[in-house]
Amino acid sequence: MKILCVGYREWALEIYDELAKKSDNVFLILRSKSQFSEGILNDFKPDLVLFYGWSWIIPAQILENYKCLMLHPSPLPKYRGGSPIQNQIIAGEKKSMVSIFVMTNELDAGDILVQKEISFEGKLSDIFRSIVETGISSTLEILENDIRAIKQDDSQATYCKRRKPEDSEITIDEIKSASAEYLYNKIRMLADPYPNAYIRTADGKKLFLKESEISED
Fold it and tell me: Residue 87: exposed, middle, or buried by beta-carbon count in 10 A (0-12, 13-18, 19+)?
């Protein structure tokens, strides 16, 4: 089988590199948006295209002519849309899912092939490691088995918006009214490579907060 892997996020590229090592299939890995084009698709003629962690709309003709899979780190149909990790953490979710589904023209709404639970506890780097490890095992399961896709229940769907850099500010109102757990979650969910959490100081500067911990004292 010929598999085209399209990505730009570090965790997605880690999955692709490990798949190429562990599977006997033929892989072509594209590591940025600029490397991807319909011309490459037509030349390579893949049997399967992986768009793990992709952030842009895929033209309808590609989805119609190629089987395309997406990895979305949420318990679909919950948390469809942008910034799913951050939106789940700030909502207080302790666990999530790695969902791999068949892409359609509707946002994160395609039939699900595999869903596996992961923890949302700990540092953001721990969460990424879980996504990578689960993404590898789940994709290998798809490649090695005839898995029946399961239709999503659209009536249970929820949606989240992609976060903007200005959403990383911890405001005075949040400091006065939010719980320690909320602020801890906001800081850890915005560790690198995301726009870090910050507070504005009296002299108009931004003080970035990259790590935090909660004391019971």
Answer: buried
CA-based nearest residue to 111, from 120, 121, 99: 99
Is 68 domain-assigned? Answer: yes
Measured in whole angstroms, how far is the alpha carbon of residue 131 from the centre of its chain? 8
Is residue 130, in this structure, part of any structural domain at all? yes
Question: What is the 8-class DSSP label of residue 166?
Answer: G
Q: What is the pLDDT of residues 162-213, one digit of tens each?
A: 999 999 999 999 999 999 999 999 999 999 999 999 999 999 999 999 999 9
- Do β-strands 95-102 and 68-72 pair in parallel, antiparallel, or remain unpaired? antiparallel
The two tokens of residue 166 are 């200005």
Which amino acid appears at position 113 of this protein? L
Which one of 122, 137, 160 terminates a domain?
Answer: 160
Residue 216, domain member (yes or no): no
Which residue spans within 55-203 are E strands per DSSP? 68-72, 80-81, 95-102, 112-119, 159-160, 197-200
Q: Could you give the CA distance from residue 132 to residue 116 in angstroms, rounded to a whole number?
A: 12
Query: What is the CA angle 97-50-115, rounded to 5?
Result: 20
Question: Which tokens belong to 162?
Answer: 């992609």
- Reported pTM: 0.93
Comparing CA positions, the residue from 63, 54, 65, 57 lying closest to residue 15 is 54
Q: Please state the domain count of the chain.
A: 2
